[in-house]
């Protein structure tokens, strides 16, 4: 990642420093491995905050430290579902913007899916494609469970 002069280099976050996000990222990496097997697991990277009294900025990044999008909200660590939803959203943005492809794709419709949290705090990949019987959008699989049904996609464009 190329940063303007004077800005610190992002640092890899050691395992265990942010355990809620670590657990969420482990689930996301299962989905990544199932759908994009040529892509290395995502990692957490951090930068110091502008104000030393504020928490550092943490991002979901490719294995080389590149990321795209906003930092993870520190409050998202409050519950497992909130952590998973935040990490899924950040991971999806990083993968889509840096690898130039929609991810993950619904195998039924070929559309990019999005993380959604239901009333029971289950975070799932949601597809906007209409189902033939109901005619409405649908939940495809819980985040972390794409390996059960996925066919890997071709490798990302260089």
Order of helices and strands: EHEEHEEE
N/C terminus separation = 16 Å
SSE class: alpha+beta
Q: What is the total domain count?
A: 1
* Uncertain residue segments: 150-154
Q: What's the pLDDT, averaged over the residues?
A: 86
Query: Biggest β-sheet: count, sense, barrel?
Result: 3 strands, antiparallel
| Structural shape | globular
How large, in whole angstroms, is the Cα Rg? 16 Å
Secondary structure tally, helices:
2
Strand order of the largest sheet: 1-2-3
> Helical amount among residues, as a percent range?
10-25%
> What is the number of E strands?
6
Tell me the β content: 15-25%
Explain this structure to me?
This protein starts with 10 loop residues before the first strand and ends in a 16-residue tail after the last strand. The chain has helices spanning 19-35, 80-99; strands at residues 11-12, 43-47, 57-61, 114-117, 123-127, 138-142. 23% of the residues lie in helices and 16% in strands. It is globular and about 55 Å long. The strands form two sheets. A three-stranded antiparallel beta sheet has the order 1-2-3. It is an alpha+beta fold. The longest helix has 20 residues, at 80-99. A hairpin with a 5-residue loop joins strand 4 and strand 5. The protein has one domain (11-148).
